[in-house]
Amino acid sequence: MRNKAEDFYLYELLHDQPNSWMTSAEFWAMVETFICMRGNFIAYKAQLPGRPIKALIPISWDRVTKCEQHEDYSITYEISFKDGKTRTYNQNQIMHIRGLLTLDGFTGVNPIEYSRETMGNGIAQVRHLGKFFGKGMRPGAVVKHPLNLSAPAHSNLKANLKEKMAGLGTHWDLVLIDEAMDIVFPEIKLVDQQYIELMKMNEAQICGLYRVPLMLIQSGDKTPTYASAEQFMINYLTIGVTPDVTNYEKAIRRDVLTPEERKTYYAKFETKALLRSAFKDQMEGFRIGVNTEIYSPNEVREFMDMNPYEGGDEYRTRTSTVKDSKGEKGNEPKVQK
User: Fold this and answer.
1) Which end of the chain offers a freer environment for a tag, N or C, measured as fewer CB atoms within 10 Å?
2) Within a domain: residue 219?
3) Do the strands 75-80 and 64-69 form a parallel or antiparallel pair, or are they unpaired?
4) pLDDT per 10-residue tile (average), the chain, 337 residues
5) Which domain holds residue 177?
6) Per the confidence metrics, is the pTM higher than 0.70?
């Protein structure tokens, strides 16, 4: 039987409050942040030897000066604290959640480090675009004067025109040009829209790194319809959310549960809420699977993380059972055990 282990001592820590100052939502948001930005998250398990865990204390991965695997495959962590002291902890004292990318099996890959060129290009392009719009979407102006100006006159004229014309919101103001001067605004094409295409490419690369559909950041070439948005969310749950939460569940099993507790308890992140829009289609698929005897009802309930019921292990065509209940002959339910 599957039941919520609300009376289990770890339920409060993992589901509600892992320590005295954080909620579970804040704790798991911090986990996701460090996984995405550092590739690793660790928390100290506050407990006496052989006693239950009392709290999970998150520690910044930036404070880990050394993570080493020894010849017996045990792992130790050297952590530098604010007081300047460095302490060493063994793997039994630490909950370590690694990202899905790893090169050595005991530390996760820093995604920012491995994609720094893409990230750097994106930052540089944003800065360029900010400067571009800050100049009223013009690269500047060329003012021609028929005479040779002295240095003070040149400086005064430049300062006067710059004060009048520079900045977003002033580029449509009326400018009076006297002394037979001429002003020209050079055109800018951003290399035939290649810059915009480059911005889109960087967005796609960064989203691909974290398995996030472009739709979720309001990007992409096509505007999603209701049907396509639903498929995007299903796709995001399949390739984005599910691998991460499965990784977290297995890390909890390895680092938090004792060998004896693993026989009875397991951690499970509930993701059904993300499929509410597809609930009707999901139920229709289950109905077809049960009626064609591909699944038994209990197999479907196991997939939904629900408890089985007596008689649910039979492969029974439910539609024929309904027909038989109406008194029709020759439609006895088929049973396969």
Assistant:
1) N
2) no
3) antiparallel
4) 86 95 96 93 92 95 95 96 93 95 91 70 66 56 76 80 63 62 64 54 76 75 64 81 93 96 92 67 84 88 84 77 46 51
5) 118-190
6) no
